[in-house]
Specification:
This protein is of the alpha+beta class. It has a single domain, classed as Dimeric alpha+beta barrel (Alpha-Beta Plaits), CATH 3.30.70.1060. The protein is about 45% helix and about 35% strand. The chain contains four helices and four strands, in the order E-H-H-E-E-H-E-H. Strands 2-3-1-4 form a four-stranded antiparallel β-sheet. The chain is globular. The two termini are about 20 Å apart.
Length: about 90
C-alpha cells in the first residue's frame, strides 16, 4: 500500500464552518472506506497548517481522486506528500 501525508489549511468557507469540521472528517473517512482508501490518522493542528491526514491505498489513483474531491468541496486546500517507511526508504536509498 502507498501511504500519503496530506497537510491542509481551511479556506475562508471552511473557517466559517469550523464547528462542523469533525463531522465533515467522519463523513470523509466513510467516503474513503467506500473508495478503498484507509484513513490511518486525522489530526487538527496549531501552526502553519490547520491539520493533517495520513491515508493509504493500494492504487494511487484512488487516494488522489479522494483528495481532489475533498478539495473540491471548498472547505480546505491540501498539500500531499508520499510517505515511505524505513524499509521502503532503504530500498530506494541503497
Amino acid at each position: 500500500m502507498k501511504r500519503y501525508i496530506s497537510l491542509f489549511r481551511f479556506t475562508e468557507q471552511g473557517a466559517k464552518a469550523i464547528k462542523q469540521s469533525t463531522t465533515r472528517a467522519k463523513d470523509f473517512a466513510n467516503a474513503a472506506a467506500k473508495a478503498g482508501v484507509n484513513i490511518e490518522a486525522q489530526y487538527w493542528t496549531v501552526g502553519a497548517y490547520d491539520g493533517l491526514l495520513i491515508l493509504s491505498a493500494e492504487k494511487e489513483s484512488d487516494a488522489l481522486r479522494l483528495l481532489v474531491a475533498l478539495a473540491a468541496a471548498g472547505n480546505l486546500t491540501t498539500e500531499t506528500l508520499q510517505g515511505l517507511s524505513a524499509t521502503e526508504f532503504d530500498a530506494i536509498a541503497r
